[in-house]
Amino acid sequence: LFIYRITLCLPCYKRIIRTMHSLPSYKLSLLLALLLAALLWPGCGAPPPAPVRLSPSYSIARDGYLHYRLPTGWFDVTADSQTHGNAIWLLRSDYAATITVNEVRIDETARNEISRQGLAALARLTMFLSTQDKGALLQRAPEEFEVHGHRCCSYELLMPSNGDILRTVLYDVGGKVYAVAALRAGAAKDASDVAAVQMGFLEALRW
Fold first, then answer.
1. In a designed cystine with 23, which of 28, 55, 113, 129 is the match (CB 3.0 to 4.6 A)?
2. CB 195 within 8 A of CB 167
3. Residue 75, exposed/middle/buried by CB under 10 A (0-12, 13-18, 19+)?
4. Is 205 helix (H, G, I), strand (E, B) or coil?
């Protein structure tokens, strides 16, 4: 915002200088104070997102390893997900978004690779499988970060057939790696809200 305002003023720079030279000293001081205030005044940005509300109690994933809390406005259909093989399966009340959690099974060699280089390589592999199987397009490249000291890596894919957005976060919980995937229907316009719920849900996971 600071750079943006300075950029807007550059075409008027010479005019401002000429005006300043012609002003009495007390008016010049006032003008400088006003210019400084205009440059430093904080912008009216968007309000911070509301914190994600979760159920006070924990449920147990189908694999018996993870414990999770249900976001407000979502249904827990994990018990009905046996045929889909999801450890956790949540459905938003308007049916326009889902969150699924599944273990990414890795061998000892892959575990050692993650310990040395992080989750980016595994993210590229799972991302490649999605693009090959579903024809998905890369929307956002893998990005590594940490949650409670545990490694994470997120990426985002676009499904060109229907406009759905799939944001996946790989979460290394020490003994296992899980893919926490949030799918938003193409007709919905609240991708950032779905991502916020996904992260709030992920940060509350226990094992």
1. 28
2. yes
3. middle
4. coil
Q: Strand (E) positions, 25-70?
A: 59-60, 67-68
pLDDT-above-70 percentage for the chain: 75
For the four alpha carbons of 25, 28, 34 and 39, in that order, the dihedral sign comes to negative
DSSP H/E element including 121: helix 120-134
Inter-residue contact 143 to 167 (CB < 8 Å): no
Q: Which pLDDT does position 43 carry in this prediction?
A: 47
pLDDT at 30 over 60: no
Burial track 141-166 (b if 16+ CB lie within 10 A, e otherwise): ebeeeeeeeebbbbbbbbbeeeebbb
3-state SS, residue 22:
helix
The amino acid that residue 18 corresponds to is R
Number of Cβ within a 10 Å radius of residue 201? 23
CA dist., res. 152 & res. 119, Å (int): 7
**Amino acid letter at 115?**
S
Cβ atoms within 10 Å of 44's Cβ, excluding its own: 7
How far is Cα 101 from Cα 66, in angstroms, rounded to an integer?
10
